[in-house]
């Protein structure tokens, strides 16, 4: 992640909020002067035989005061939102370097990958199916019907080591000889970048795959080489 770029963006955002608050204050001052002029003209031109009640003036003043309070509150909320945005960027830095588990393609480079197995209810047999970035099946092997994590060593069905690259994983569930489910599996991948887009946190995984933070169901520290 480009830390310098992030800090620059945050600083610029803070200036914009400050300018917005100053503009809002100036508008309130200008509007209040206009309001007083209109109120004075209204008093000067009222019917002397049917003058306005003092309560009417009080209501008008209270209404303007309420609008003024709302404008100031909105300016304060905008400033707080800018500060919270800066805090979120600081929190995002904690994702980088962690391993996130999500349904996505994963980068393999001679280090076994940990997969989440979720056989369908009623499954009697299950098969792990591995595809490369082109969608070709490079491995298909029967696995236990269990929700225990699986380790994929990165070898083909013939036992040959596979090259580094992006791979996706599906779990096929069978019952009475028929496939009852074919689901893409969640896999742990290292987070190399985190950013906010349209209010949503997006994680960039090793190899370039992207997932929303809301799609991550587990986080862990990177496993040290054995």
TrEMBL record:
Q: Please report the stretch or stretches of sequence annotated as the FlgD/Vpr Ig-like domain.
A: 107-176
Q: Outline the segment boundaries, as ranges, of region: Disordered.
A: 1-24
Write the record's keywords in alphabetical order, separated by commas.
Bacterial flagellum biogenesis
Q: Which residues cross the membrane?
A: none
The record, for InterPro entries, names:
FlgD, FlgD/Vpr_Ig-like
Cited function: Required for flagellar hook formation. May act as a scaffolding protein.
Family statement drawn from the similarity comment of this UniProt entry? Belongs to the FlgD family.
Put simply, this protein is called Basal-body rod modification protein FlgD
């Amino acid at each position: 992640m480009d830390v310098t770029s992030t800090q620059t963006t945050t600083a610029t955002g803070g200036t914009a909020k400050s300018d917005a608050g100053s503009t809002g204050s100036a508008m309130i001052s200008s509007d209040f002067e206009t309001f007083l002029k209109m109120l004075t003209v209204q008093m000067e031109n009222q019917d002397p035989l049917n003058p306005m009640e003092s309560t009417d003036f009080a209501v008008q003043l209270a209404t303007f005061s309420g609008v003024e309070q709302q404008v100031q509150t909105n300016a304060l909320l905008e400033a707080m939102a800018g500060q919270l945005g800066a805090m979120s960027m600081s929190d995002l830095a904690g994702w980088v370097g962690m391993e996130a588990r999500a349904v996505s393609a994963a980068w393999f480079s001679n280090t076994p990958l940990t997969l989440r197995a979720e056989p369908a209810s009623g499954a009697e047999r299950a098969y792990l199916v591995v595809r490369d970035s082109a969608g070709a099946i490079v491995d298909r092997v029967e696995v236990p019907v269990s929700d225990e994590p699986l380790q994929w060593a990165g070898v083909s069905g013939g036992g040959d080591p596979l090259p580094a690259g992006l791979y996706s994983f599906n779990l096929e569930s069978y019952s009475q000889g028929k496939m009852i489910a074919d689901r893409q599996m969640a896999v742990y991948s290292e987070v190399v970048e985190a950013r906010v887009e349209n209010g949503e946190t997006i994680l960039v995984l090793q190899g370039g795959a992207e997932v929303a933070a809301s799609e991550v169901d587990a986080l862990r520290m990177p496993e040290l080489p054995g």
